[in-house]
Write a structure and sequence with these properties.
The chain is of the alpha/beta class. Helix content is 49%, strand content 19%. Helix 1 links the parallel strand 1 and strand 2. Helix 1 packs parallel to helix 4 and helix 4 crosses helix 5.
Length: 150
């Protein structure tokens, strides 16, 4: 999987490398090796604006996903690369949540990324059975990545 990282807020190089590794593993698990995803690392202010604009929710959130498959964008012809979409992560929110949950910042960032990637791949958590399925997938991926709650 090709991963484009847009850093509105910087993170350590090892975090960035783990973001790429996580997307690559997800790509292999779900047969999306020939896909592209954009991961934006941002702050609460920016994600708040996006959450309000696109979801009508007037507060910051931890992660947003915008699936290319669900958009009105034109199909790219003659391309071997499938564009999955965008995952936007609030680094500020991830730091707070990591502390609140008692695990590492790395674990929180990667968990949020995995959550967002699963949305791009068609998973959702509106219905209870779908929520359970998505939680099981998240757990499986985090185990495959060997990133646990420290």
């Amino acid at each position: 999987m090709t991963v484009l990282i847009d850093k509105k807020i910087s993170v350590e190089e090892n975090i960035e490398n783990e973001i790429i590794r996580a997307a690559t593993v997800v790509g292999k698990i779900y047969g999306a090796e020939n896909s592209e995803v954009s991961i934006t690392l941002t702050d609460d202010k920016n994600i708040h604006e996006l959450n309000k604009k696109f979801r009508g929710i007037d507060r910051p959130t931890d992660v947003l996903s915008f699936a290319f498959r669900e958009s009105d964008e034109p199909q790219i012809l003659n391309s071997d690369l499938e564009i999955l979409g965008d995952v936007i992560i609030s680094v500020e929110r991830a730091k707070i949540q990591a502390e609140d949950f008692g695990h590492s910042f790395l674990r929180e960032i990667i968990f949020l990324e995995v959550h967002g990637l699963l949305h791009l791949l068609g998973y959702d958590h509106i219905e209870e059975k779908d929520r359970i399925e998505m939680e099981n997938e998240q757990k499986f991926i985090m185990e495959e990545l060997k990133i646990g709650r420290e």
